[in-house]
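Translate sequence into structure tokens.
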Amino acid sequence: MTGTYDGGTFKLYVNGVLEAQQTETTTIGYTGNTWTIGSSPANIRNQGFPRTWNGVIDEVQVFSRALGASEIQGIINAGSGGECKVPALISAIPNTAPQGQQNISVALGGAFTNWVQGTTLASFGPGINPVSVTVNSPTSATAVVNVSPTAATGAGNITLITGPEIDSLTNGLP
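Result follows.
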């Protein structure tokens, strides 16, 4: 469901199709209340009128302008590939390293990730110790690691953590 207002007409779209519209010129006022989606503001809930949504609300977005019908249909047509993209760690180069090797520079690539310098943490599994992690962009980082002489051999797992975002790659080092 999508609602738009362009300063003269309110429009309601369901599954990308215009269902209703109403012409009205008005000023939308804003109060000091916190904006809520899916329930009434806290001051109304506290008066015994909860009006909470019993269900799931997904992909909430607010734009600085009214989207056109073709833009709304484009988002609907994109499905899960459109607005809600899942972050993922997609590459580690090199993806192998011999036991006992020190100061290996590993280039990490992500898709739709939000890595942040000084915030993103890296884990390479037992016996592989990150010395440093440098975030080059939200989707690119470089880690310097030391591989213990006793590190397990075979495919390992690499995980980057930025706040609630956890991005993992199997078949990483060693």
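Note: The chain is about 10% helix and 40% strand.
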